[in-house]
Design a protein that fits this description.
This protein is an alpha/beta fold. The chain has a domain of about 160 residues. The chain has 20 helices and eight strands. An eight-stranded mixed β-sheet has the order 3-2-4-1-5-6-7-8, with helices on both faces. Helix 11 packs across helix 12. The relative contact order is 0.10. The structure holds guanosine-5'-diphosphate and magnesium ion. The site of guanosine-5'-diphosphate has 18 residues, from helix 14.
Length: about 475
């Protein structure tokens, strides 16, 4: 808690006015540094102190670790100037401090510490940020900047509470657009042609639109339903021309994706049950969610209630170690509900904030599935009232119509509170997200856009709809 509170203040305080927060902060610090300079005779003698020095008043008394040393150099000063003059965005700043840095090492730690000092972060928090990141790189065996650059930006954004800022949003939008590029080519281009070639919103128009939806893998019934919804909206809004249909569609999609934010006022541990068929990405997604929770300073435990194969348990254990989560497992073949029960007990006793329970997805029949999942739910709830607080169904976006039938099956067999759609990076079938959200009335909370830790992104329906239609991202003010 309170991580980088000083920095949050800088960012949060001056968001509406477009004054560059870094420049402001640097200016104040420079003034302070100037004052200090006047006192300290015979310091470096440089007229321009890097913002860094003044920003870390504790530095002098703190043990001088090489990594966070606040020594100034002509290079630091040049960097300070460049940061001040740059556009005040995290990605831009990161680009500047990573110049000339190819891989993990002293230069990277120094530059990172430098940036954080320039952003007024307290010395001890800088140290722990750098140490954490360094340890994580070692565990992940990442060396080169390309391997960890986006993770670094992601961590900075989380630590600085910048995730909702424009910078992060446009990054997410680009990622989604990239992931959807194949869908977009087919779908957006054909939409354009359709909207341009029809004058009136007549039957021929609606029929062609329906075909387009089916081709985008919405499925037959959802396609009919979406066309009906659009007709209703067109009547209500007195829209009669095809070129206005794009706006209709955008508005309808935004509504389909709009899900009420749930208030999660649970007494910890919050228990998250991951369900879904084999291979959709449950285990990987648990690792990603656990990583996010760890980055937000939470104590996390992962339980291996998928006891089917020893290799699956080992895979989960490796992830738990990498992200720094506690781990609870039993040998392969053990009763999944017993594993869940023991983990729940441990999580309560050890003061865990979030417990993730991984489950197997290879149950042959719906009856089996229902029995096993309800047993797990029952033992969790017995130990900790309200648990599981969130049952997340993981769906693989590349499976198209299968994802729809899986959603139906799991909704009938077990409780489902939210959906996570994985592998959107590898699909030409972005339409399945629309179908699932429309037919099952469940919020999509995250989407998987790749195999890396930071490739799990919060889902924003408005951005997704725009990406699908090939529109530019909405500004932060238009956010729903
Ligand atoms: N490209 C891509 N691959 C993913 C994504 N999520 C998971 N995977 C991969 O999908 C495979 C199966 O994942 P796993 O978590 O073991 O699935 P589980 O059987 O449901 O636990 C693994 O190779 C993952 O790396 C994603 O968002 N994008
Ligand atoms: Mg698994």
């Amino acid at each position: 808690m309170g991580f980088f509170s000083a920095v949050k203040k800088i960012f949060g305080g001056s968001r509406q006015d477009d004054a560059a927060p870094l420049a402001e902060a640097a200016a104040t610090q420079e003034a302070e540094a100037g004052a200090r300079l006047a006192e300290q005779e015979g310091a470096s003698g440089s007229p321009v102190k890097p913002a860094a020095e003044a920003a870390a008043p504790g530095a002098a008394s703190a043990p001088a670790g090489a990594v966070v040393s606040a020594e100034s150099s002509p290079e630091d000063e040049a960097l300070t100037v460049r940061l001040r003059e740059a556009e005040p965005r995290l990605s831009v700043w990161l680009g500047i401090i990573l110049e000339g840095v190819d891989s993990a090492g002293d230069l990277l730690w120094q530059r990172l510490a430098f940036l954080l000092r320039a952003l007024d972060a307290p010395q001890d928090e800088i140290r722990s940020f750098v140490d954490d990141f360094r340890a994580w790189l070692e565990r992940m065996e990442y060396h080169h900047v390309e391997e960890f650059r986006s993770e670094l930006q992601y961590r900075l954004a989380l630590a600085l509470d910048l995730e909702d800022e424009e910078d992060e949003r446009s990054r997410l939008f680009l990622k989604i657009s990239e992931g959807l590029s194949r869908t977009r080519e087919q779908f957006a281009r054909r939409l354009d042609t359709l909207f341009a070639s029809h004058g009136e919103l007549d039957d021929a128009f609606w029929e062609e639109l329906e075909e387009l939806f089916i081709m985008a893998d919405l499925g037959y019934e959802p396609s009919l339903e979406l066309v009906e919804r659009l007709k209703t909206r067109a009547r209500r809004e007195k829209v009669a021309r095809a070129e206005q249909a794009r706006q209709l569609l955008l508005a309808e999609l935004e509504e389909i994706f709009r899900a009420p934010r749930r208030i999660s006022a649970v007494n910890p541990p919050e228990v998250v049950l991951m369900i879904g068929v084999n291979g959709v990405g449950k285990t990987t997604t648990i690792a990603k969610l656990a990583h996010r929770a760890r980055m937000q300073g939470k104590k996390v435990m992962i339980a291996a209630a998928d006891t089917f194969r020893a290799a699956a348990i080992e895979q989960l254990q490796v992830w738990a170690e990498r992200v720094g989560a506690l781990f609870h497992a039993r040998p392969a073949g053990s009763d999944p509900a017993s594993v869940a029960f023991e983990a729940m007990d441990r999580a309560v006793k050890e003061g865990v904030d979030v417990l993730f329970v991984d489950t197997a997805g290879r149950l042959q029949t719906k009856v089996n599935l229902m029995e096993e999942l309800s047993k797990i739910r029952h033992v969790l709830g017995k130990k900790h009232s309200g648990a599981p607080h969130r049952s997340i169904l993981v769906l693989d976006a590349t499976t198209g119509q299968n994802a729809l039938s899986q959603a139906k099956l799991f909704k009938e067999a077990a409780g489902v509170d939210e959906l996570i759609l994985t592998k959107l990076d590898g699909t030409a079938k972005g339409g399945v997200a629309i179908a699932v959200a429309m037919q099952h009335h469940l919020p999509i909370t995250f989407v998987g856009l790749g195999e890396k830790m930071e490739d799990l992104r919060p889902f924003n329906g408005a951005d997704y709809a725009r990406a699908l239609l090939g529109e530019p991202a909405s500004g932060p003010d238009e956010k729903l």
